[in-house]
Write a structure and sequence with these properties.
single chain; 7-stranded mixed sheet; 4-stranded antiparallel sheet; mainly beta; globular
């Protein structure tokens, strides 16, 4: 059973950089054909894909967020990390990590972590 757990700050001020880590257990980041992904859901909005890092280390980003987003991984710790720079209150959301496959499908999810950006 694959399990994912997000960790990171819950409150940031505008212009700061958000850094979240997803720790994976029961699976490895290098297993063929999976993409380890970050998504978020803001109040009143749908689920937004932010980006992924594939099993072979390639990164894919949502074009609307690409200039502010970086995803990396530490295979020795079985963790992958999201960094989102220059946050604004519009970045307030529940952030999820998930295991993706076959394009835009996800089979395992973290429980989500609330991030609030406020002065």
């Amino acid at each position: 059973q694959v399990q994912l757990q997000e960790s990171g700050p819950s409150l940031l001020k505008p212009s700061q950089t958000l850094s979240l880590t997803c720790t994976v257990s029961g699976g490895t980041l290098t297993t063929n054909d999976y993409a380890w992904s970050w998504l978020r859901q803001s109040p009143g909005k749908g689920l937004e894909r932010m980006g992924s890092i594939t099993y072979d280390g390639r990164t894919l980003y949502n074009p609307s967020l690409e200039s502010r987003t970086s995803i990396s991984r530490d295979t020795s710790k079985n963790q992958f990390t999201l960094q989102l720079s220059s946050v604004t209150p519009e970045d307030t959301a529940v952030y999820y990590c998930a295991r993706g496959f076959g394009g835009w499908s996800y089979d395992y999810w973290g429980q989500g972590t609330q991030v609030t950006v406020s002065k």
